[in-house]
Amino acid sequence: MSDLVENDTSGKQRDTLVMSGGVALSIVPILWSVLVPPPHGFTPEMQSVLAVFAFSLVLWLSKAVPYVISATISVVLLFALGGVDTFQDATIGFASSLVFFLLLLLLLGQAISKVDLDAWFASRLLSAGGHSHRPIRALSGYMLALSFVMPSAVARTVTFIPVVRQMTEAYGLGHDSDFERTSFLVLGHINPIASMTLMTGGGMAIITSELVQSEIQPITWVEWATLMIPPVVVLYVLSAFTAERFYDARSEVEDATPDDTSPSQLTDDLEVTPDFEFSHDQLIVGSVMVSAVVLWIIGSFIGIPTIVPAALAVGVLALPDIGIITADDVSEVSWGILFVIGTMFSILHAMETTGTLTYLVDLITNMIPFGSLVYWQIVAILLALAVLIRVFFSTASAAIIVVLPIIIRFGETLGINRLYLALSVLLIVGSTTILPFNTTAVLLSFDRGPLSKIDVIVFGLVTMVYAAFVIVFAWTIYWPLLT
Questions:
Q1: Which of 119, 152, 297, 475 is 20 to 30 Å from 15 by CA-CA measure?
Q2: What is the pTM of this model?
Q3: How do residues 246-269 score in pLDDT, each as one tens digit?
Q4: Residue 118 DSSP SS3
């Protein structure tokens, strides 16, 4: 017990030291902007914008203060230091449809969890798992299916952690069994990959689609699905197939379920109700979500903005006679990530208008001999840069909002297909987890499951390599067939 208390205390001290260091380091670029004359080729506005950008990144990476506070301070500094002319210009990122679209999808995700639709899927998995000698495949399949109606990978992980524990007990396996270790790899590493299939599938896809539409070309819900579902499913299946064999979980399950153990007995052990039916609220939420998907599909052909079906769905679920989405649900939204996105868009807009982004891209282009490289080598370097930056972020969404605009600008300068490049960045960033904190779903699996740091790193590298192969396939064969 004393060892646990001592470790907890040392962990808190380490976190406090990191946060204090983050605060101190974040002040440095601000002092540089105020006290040091602009370097050669820089205007005062460019210096101020770059200083606020560095200030924001340090605070977000160190998590020294809540995201809402650091984002608000960044917006104020953007105006106060002269990076933009008016405070309205400093807050222009919050006018992006992405902020409101993500808010609506977060509310819809909460509604799904609130009425236990995720639990309904979980019960189906328990029932299927009790009748199958390959429950890992059942788990992977249900996670993929659920991603089409439940955007949050974290919510899916939280929902299925107790499911995995019940299945482990039903098969008579231990907490450190190969089956449970493999299952937590599926929950942490593979589950978030499924969120990239749809434009409305989660923060990563939403941010990427918004940047594609604003920086490259219009893209509809159906066009995104056509471009992304096959590559993502291939990546997902490869990763799930590998996970099943990572610890030989299949053999362990077969040995743990002798022939005289009937499927019905396993189902009884799992406490599943075979005739589980939808409740009234579940029917409402399910119908609304299906209607939203239908509107997204129809809207792709007749020009309905993607945000409209989401707004209608939230409006219906918030009606007084329905009352599934309430004021309490609004207060529980992840406002921090919404503020980060709004602030980052404001900073990016300022970097565009002041010429800061062009200056940085030109500077790096002059440092790296892109002119002597062939096409695929340039793409590989840009994707490697995206992976390098991604490692420092605790969520893929935050990494994409920072790195993708820069990569897109490189693509424009170097003559690279920017649409393919943006989708490739999403695939590689969304599939790369080197450290447990890089992805919230992985962190939950690492914290609550039997995974070690080596497990996280090795399998994270496996999914990254698979993503690279899928990108080559999509870039050279699949995407050219569609565009």
A1: 152
A2: 0.78
A3: 766 556 555 555 444 444 444 444
A4: helix
